Amino acid sequence: MRIAIDAMGGDYAPRAVVLGTELASKTSSSELILVGPQDVLESELAALAQRPSNVTIKNASGIPPAHESPVLALRKRKDASILVATRLIKEGTADAVVSAGSTGIGMVAARTILRLLPGVARPAIAALLPNPTGMCLVIDVGANVDCRPQHLYEFAVMGNIFARQVLNIPSPRVGLVNIGEEEGKGNQFSRAAFEVLAETNKAAFDFVGNIEGRDIYEGTVDVVVCDGFVGNVILKTSEALATAVFALLRRELTADPVSKLGAALSKKAFKRVLKRVDYEEYGGVPILGVDGVFIVCHGSSGPKAIANAVFEAERCVSHEVNRRIVAALADRGTASVLAPVAADA
Amino acid sequence: MRIAIDAMGGDYAPRAVVLGTELASKTSSSELILVGPQDVLESELAALAQRPSNVTIKNASGIPPAHESPVLALRKRKDASILVATRLIKEGTADAVVSAGSTGIGMVAARTILRLLPGVARPAIAALLPNPTGMCLVIDVGANVDCRPQHLYEFAVMGNIFARQVLNIPSPRVGLVNIGEEEGKGNQFSRAAFEVLAETNKAAFDFVGNIEGRDIYEGTVDVVVCDGFVGNVILKTSEALATAVFALLRRELTADPVSKLGAALSKKAFKRVLKRVDYEEYGGVPILGVDGVFIVCHGSSGPKAIANAVFEAERCVSHEVNRRIVAALADRGTASVLAPVAADA
After folding, report:
1. What's the whole-model pTM score?
2. In CATH terms, is domain B2-120+289-331 a member of 1.20.120.30?
3. Could B262 and A267 be called an inter-chain contact, meaning their C-beta atoms sit closer than 8 Å?
4. Minimal Cβ distance to B252: which of A214, A228, A269
């Protein structure tokens, strides 16, 4: 397998990306292709204790300047690392792309170069939120801010397959974000989406009905679908609140000497908590619905997140997530369940 | 002033409501009218160490059974405590209502009995979320799941006045919930709402533009407006995530003896954190836009929350929140800022 890694994407690029690639190279049997300026990457690799044998370089320019429209930015910089990396899939030189660059730019690259999978009207970005036993996949979190109910059916099909094949959840429970659990709750859009999802053959995915915030965080649902506006609000509110709570804890736990001592003693417990909510543990989030595997990492990804994203991309490829999505959409989803979950590569 | 208190609303009614009323009676100079079954409330009051002189009883039946449509429930039980309490405002026998019953039932009671304030097309429910320096008011959080952009203008006017008069924020910064800060971001609805809010005279309220989740929790905005679907998702996701984080902390901090000891030493710090995120500290949330002061408390409110809701209701009345809303809407908001903030009663 060959994984193209956008070496210039992310707040700590290229260093963190190169270190993450080195980390992944230790257990991965794939060819890992770092995409970025040859000279920069050569010197980054030369600085490693040992240059990994399964890491190669593909020359490209750096990322387009931020704070611009992604479309305009990419039009100006045709040899940007993210574009070159994505073209490797199109050309058949790579099986997947990993990037910690902006999601917007990733989306534009994926849509314009890879195009959509047959049967997909809207590609979507899925995010992973932690719950007590694992992860809840929220789809879409920003690619589609104005949706039709039918699009949520696609999100459910794609999310269900990703959850089964990549997150190893045998029978994902799929829920619709709403403001009450009873049927008939919600706004015009969510009521119409409920109808579409409830009509679906149970073999396509297990639709458990309307869900609310607590279902996401209590682990009573595995995949939640919503339009990209609502999903983005859920994601950003959650990130912001978690950050605020931990900041508040840090402030109060260092405010008096006794609490400070207590916090020092509880250090291991806090580490376990942070590990549970740490996005670096799962790597990145997929752009689903495009004809190629595309994993977007958090902008502030460190080496561990990059390495985990590489493994995630490998699972997407080996478990044929995209072939399954096409098959499932072709027969309104039944194939996704009839086909067995792929054994881990 | 006379505050009607729905003695039968909430998970711990009537006990918690009666104790909260007793607590409020110690510092309040209002007449506090407990509304519920006379015999039940007489025996609750008799059980107190001393029966407060400023607490009276208004006979009514208990709350309608839950898990029903609020409209149907209230139609069946015309002498339900929440209806009787709300009618006291209509009759001029009370200046405000406090209830820990369901928000849905409160909304139906408020709309059908009190009717709307002149100039208000949609009443709204505002929630308060904690930030590092105080509170952020989110409006609407569920009364209006399908909005027109113009409704968000009303929410901004009402939220601005409540924040100034009741939360004591001299110049509230009003933001629009969106999925990016730049103008032009968002879905069709949020872009149209941005236009309406941005056109508003700066004297009506200080519109600071689009905001995201982090603005709510970092304290860079005081009032955020959104449709009730999005607001409800923000509120429920936040509650669920906060609960999940504290549950995770509790689990990990008791998982090994050293952490447990550390947690015991840090007890004071945790108490300060919990106090900061405790809804009991601020009491309740207002239903704004109806012709009467109506404060809804959390269903699991204890005595402290009930007492704080009584004080909140008193501030709404003494600071003439409703008169200011009518005036502000009549001249598209300019009156709300020209009129001075009321001195505390």
Report:
1. 0.90
2. no
3. yes
4. A269
